[in-house]
Design goal:
With about 230 residues, this protein is α+β, with helices and mostly antiparallel strands. The protein contains four helices and nine strands, in the order αβββββββββααα. A four-stranded antiparallel β-sheet has the order 4-3-8-9, with no helix packed on it. A hairpin with a 2-residue loop joins β8 and β9.
Length: about 230
């Protein structure tokens, strides 16, 4: 009975994983630091795969919008940003949100009391062969190939080492030696090569000396054998 229960739990978990995988969509992943003086520090704004943030619309002084090229608002959300932490008052607050992405989206805007305090070009793909704006491999693979930084780590084995992944995350990175180290390998091997060459030279010299010694001993023995014995007085 317990084995059947474990099997059912495993199948249920597998179904949930499949549902989550198939429900993934393109999103604008927004990470900003909002300061009370209306300045914004951009941490990361990229287009990637994910699930949009579920957020109930509540009245607030802040709003985020995404507009098309003509300035029409395609998506908007009132957000509440608090400048209070565990210690009390703070001058800045971290804001993170995943916005459902549309191909016609052009500009991300944050407003405070209806005043624009931040804008960002979120064009999905401008085909300029540069990985800029909010482009990533997911939104523009031609401008952002896997071997370039785009803020998204592809940890699957695909034959390309992703520079956005931490050490040990992308299995493809472990297959290739560090190019920075490879260029110094000949220099690291040079002392060993010199030692081996010197040892081989010494060995040849020792053999040469040993051959000369044997030839001398043989010559000496032949000379003594050819000489008449000395008479004793």
């Amino acid at each position: 009975m317990s084995q059947m229960k474990a099997t059912l739990l495993f199948l249920t978990g597998l179904v949930l994983l499949l549902v989550l995988e198939t429900s993934a969509e393109k999103v604008i992943y927004v990470n900003l630091i909002v300061h009370q003086n209306n300045s914004i520090t951009e941490d990361d704004v990229i287009i990637t795969d994910g699930r949009a943030t579920q957020y109930h619309k509540t009245p607030g002084d802040y709003k985020i919008e995404v507009r098309n090229t003509g300035g029409t608002v395609l998506w908007s959300q009132d957000v509440e940003i608090a400048f209070i932490d565990e210690s009390g008052y703070c001058s800045s607050s971290y804001f993170s949100y995943k916005i459902p992405y549309q191909d016609t989206m052009k500009t991300l805007v944050m407003l405070h009391n209806k005043k624009e305090i931040y804008t960002k070009d979120v064009t999905g793909c401008n085909h300029n062969l540069k990985c800029d704006n909010a482009e990533t491999y997911f939104s523009c693979s031609n401008d952002c190939p896997l071997n370039q930084k785009d803020g998204v780590c592809m940890s699957k084995s695909d034959g390309v080492c992703d520079p956005d992944c931490y050490a040990g995350v992308d299995p493809d990175c472990a297959k290739k030696p560090d190019a920075g180290l490879v260029q110094y390998l000949p220099y690291a091997a040079l002392p060993m090569i010199l030692v081996i060459a010197y040892a081989a030279h010494r060995r040849r010299e020792e053999k040469k000396i040993e051959k000369q010694r044997r030839e001398f001993e043989q010559w000496k023995a032949e000379r003594e054998a050819a000489s008449p014995p000395r008479r004793t007085p």
